[in-house]
Write a structure and sequence with these properties.
Oligomer: single chain
Structural class: alpha+beta
Number of helices: 8
Order of helices and strands: EEHEHHEEEEHHHHH
Largest sheet: 7 strands, mixed
Strand content: 15-25%
Shape: rod-shaped
Length: about 325
């Protein structure tokens, strides 16, 4: 657990034992960052911050949906960020936040063991480095929270950009006809579409949560979160719109590919049908006359030649007719 005291003089690392005095001193801002959940984190949130037991439970377990709870002097939010995994899987990296007057508590995870801890911490670490460097000077805890969400939103846009690069490459391969394994190629397209659907869902849910926050301005009257929540909602809506447009574009690429593949299969089936029609008379005639024209002891040459001529004429006539019909 990391405790930071933010004042005009900079950022000072503090111990957990200093938290009650820092909160009572009403000087600067207090930011508590909890990378992993443990008994100490539960004790601090319950004893020092007086967080509701249900919210403490939400910090401890994995939440599959984002949520917001308003308390008399604080807000509790659960949000997710997308992270690409193996085989096209999209991890939902959770970040819980408790925002109150002059303090912010960020709780990471729980996350999938396949996701490195650095991935879960990168947004909060980036904001902390900006504060330490003087590039960000938060006046309220909502300013820090908004900076974290802005960083998360930019990373979400980068996620969409990476998927867009995959979409462009798939589109190039489709139009160029450069795919040797159709099953594998179609699998790649569906995995990319799944990623776009995942980020669209996360962005839409984030925007919905901040629309709710915009209507809860009385929850923390000193902080006035309306402006930051409205900006966060707009950014998330923008990310959702980008994902939707790219998903629709990829769907068009998939349909183009499937149409081309199905057309090839239809043409092949038509040609196979023509071949079957051409060979069917030969097969029928041979099955009737073969045993009478070619035997072990004696072969009747003239009837055999006549039968072969009839077969060739029938096949040629059928090929000519199929050509006239445009089937060949």
């Amino acid at each position: 657990m990391d405790v930071h005291h933010l004042t005009d003089d900079g950022v000072r690392a503090c111990s957990v034992d200093e938290l009650p005095a820092l909160l009572a001193g009403r000087v600067g801002l207090v930011w508590v960052d909890i990378p992993t959940w443990d008994a100490e984190a539960q004790d601090v949130l319950t004893r020092v911050f007086g967080l509701h037991p249900l919210a403490v439970r939400d910090c401890e377990v994995r939440n599959r949906l984002p949520k917001v709870h308003a308390y008399p002097d604080s807000l509790f939010l659960v949000l997710h960020a997308p992270e690409r995994g193996e085989g096209g899987h999209v991890h939902h990296v959770e970040l819980d936040r408790l925002i109150g007057p002059r303090y912010l508590v960020t709780v990471h995870g729980p996350v999938n063991p396949a996701v490195p801890l650095d991935v879960a911490l990168r947004d909060t670490r980036e904001v902390l480095e900006r504060i330490r460097a003087g590039r960000l000077r938060p006046r309220t805890s909502f300013d820090i929270s908004h900076a974290i969400v802005s960083t998360l939103t930019r990373r979400m846009e980068k996620f969409v950009e990476e998927l867009t690069a995959d979409v462009w490459e798939l589109e190039r391969r489709v139009t160029a006809g450069a795919y040797d394994d159709p099953e594998k190629f179609l699998d790649e397209m569906f995995r990319t579409r799944h990623g776009l659907l995942a980020v669209r869902t996360i962005a839409a849910q984030t925007a919905e949560i901040y629309r709710r926050v915009a209507g809860l301005q009385r929850a923390v009257p000193e902080e006035k979160p309306v402006t930051s929540s409205g900006t966060s909602s707009t950014s998330s809506t923008g990310s959702r719109g980008l994902a939707v447009e790219e998903k629709d574009y990829l769907q068009g690429v998939i349909e183009f590919y499937r149409a081309r593949t199905e057309t090839k299969m239809t043409i092949a089936a038509e040609r196979l049908a023509v071949i079957a029609v051409v060979t069917l008379p030969i097969t029928a005639l041979a099955s009737v006359l073969g045993m009478n024209l070619i035997v072990n002891q004696h072969t009747t040459v003239v009837p055999l030649v006549g039968a072969l001529a009839v077969m060739i004429a029938m096949s040629g006539g059928l090929l000519w007719w199929a050509k006239r019909q445009g089937w060949w």
